[in-house]
Amino acid sequence: MEACRLASMQISQVNIVFGGNEFLASQAVRDIRHAAREAMPDAEQTDLDARTATNADLVQAVSPSLLAPRSIVVIDNLQEADPVVAQSLVDITKRMMANPQQADAIIICRHDGGQKGKGIVDALVKAGAWRDEVPKLDKPQAKVNFVRQRFESLGRHIDGRAAQLLVGVMGENPGELYAMCEQLCADFDDDPIMLERVRQYMTANPQAKGYEIADVAISGDAPRSIVMMRSVVEQGVAPVSIVGSIATEMRKLAKAAAVSAGSISVQQAGIPEWQLNRARGHLRGWTGPGMAACFEALAKADEQCKTNGGDPVYALERAIECVAAKGVPQQGFAPGDYGMFGNAGRIR
To answer: Would residue 2 count as lying in a domain?
Structure first.
């Protein structure tokens, strides 16, 4: 299968990577530098730190030399540039953009996205530099958008639910998220990549396995969830991580119930709207005491996982059965196994 490649990237003679997530900003610099290297394979690369670089350093870096007629210059911490260096960079940008075909350098600047030094960025953009606005990835929807854009940059597409699953499992690690997008494209020809393909591919990821086990349990299929759990435990996944995954999904369910009851607002729930809507779809048949019983069962399983001489797998099985039954004791279980029940009505 043909390996994934970046779709043709827009680069200018002067490029500004502005703000955003630290990993993504660093990756953007690498991507632009790689594209510049392909455009000018004979160029010499120079790295400058604007905090210490002088005007002489800048002029020397962008000027041709006897050994390298062209150059690629990477300038970090642009926001800290000395005013003289900043003005010189703007002047160089104007000259290069006036006749880009004759320019013998590509400049890549990185700015942290704050207010300091923003005037330099504005002046460079006005002079013709290209500004790459890097996403912050501080909100779930921003992460989903990033996944979609990453697939598009690879010349491919991903289904919305598949992107949401990737974010739900790997959203806290942009590096893993970035790499997984590329790996999925490299390993599969599907376009778009659909939810089942992502699920299939992520079975080796313990966090994803826990998510799947929780999803099956909450849907009411205890036997299948337990079989999945036993299988991944045999593969070396710690039961405590599965307990954590189920507890996380149960907390989402509890928050969805609270929102539906008007006890808290959507904003106060503090989870992505798509996850909230998904949890709402599972609410029918649940009661407040039933949820409390499930959390109690999960707490017992967690304790067994962390206690010498305990039986975490058995406790986890009981917790899964409790969740699948919506906290209602089934035949063969004592009331105390799932907690005490009141007369609260079912959640509709």
So the answer is: no
